[in-house]
Design goal:
186 residues, alpha+beta, 8-stranded mixed beta sheet, binds coenzyme A
């Protein structure tokens, strides 16, 4: 890590401004979103490759919104469809734990909105925010080998495959073989 990257890391202040794309508003998630977020957080299809356990009730969602998100290093956004103001998922980006200077990102959306290009649209906007407003030039992400749709999002955002590895669920009960991607933007 060079000196500029070190300074940026020391001076990092988490900020979650409202962002806009053609079809989406990305905005902070609030306790009023608990019911809407429960739709994807309790969906086994969405949860299959995620590190968190399937949510059982909206109290658990409120804990995520009130306790987990504020303490997390990543900037988290709710993904809202402009056409009907529906919150359909969430995404986040922030300093990567293993790659100094690089930012990593993640996302999940309701399964009835998959394959419409919406996550790619949201992720491109997060990357643009990190690059233009936070000065980040290096990006990393990874996905389970058996979850190619996520890899497709990464590729459509400009990342390229770098190496194989693995990741585990937060409770350590499951480990996935994974593909790791990266991108450098000047
Ligand atoms: C991964 C996920 C976020 C993608 O969201 P999305 O809004 O459907 O993504 P997009 O529509 O922008 O892009 C998906 C791409 O994957 C492609 N795809 C879907 N299923 C695929 C499969 N089985 N194999 C290969 N490509 C696939 C789609 O065709 C699309 O590519 P295209 O635009 O070239 O047609 C969504 O499936 C999801 O929430 N999954 C559960 C949570 C998750 O796995 N998060 C990521 C953890 S790393």
């Amino acid at each position: 890590m060079n000196i500029i990257q070190k300074i940026k890391q020391i001076k990092y202040i988490k900020t979650t401004p409202v962002l806009e794309t053609e079809r989406l508003i990305l905005r902070p998630i609030t306790p009023k979103d608990a019911d809407a977020a429960f739709v994807w957080l309790s969906d086994e299809k969405v949860n299959k490759f995620m590190p968190y356990n399937l949510y059982q009730n909206t109290d658990e969602v409120l804990h995520w919104i009130n306790e987990i998100i504020p303490k997390d290093k990543n900037c988290h956004w709710g993904i809202v469809l402009k056409e009907n103001n529906l919150l359909i998922g969430s995404c986040s980006i922030g300093p990567d734990k293993k790659e100094p200077g690089a930012w990593g990102f993640g996302y999940n959306i309701r399964s009835d909105y998959w394959n419409k290009g919406l996550t790619t649209e949201a992720t491109k906007r997060m990357i643009e925010f990190a690059h233009k407003e936070q000065g980040i030039k290096d990006f990393v992400s990874n996905h389970a080998v058996d979850n190619p749709a996520s890899g497709k999002v990464m590729e459509k955002c400009g990342l390229v495959f770098d190496h194989y590895g693995e990741y585990s669920t937060f409770d350590g009960t499951e480990t996935f073989k994974a593909k790791f991607y990266k991108m450098h933007i000047d």
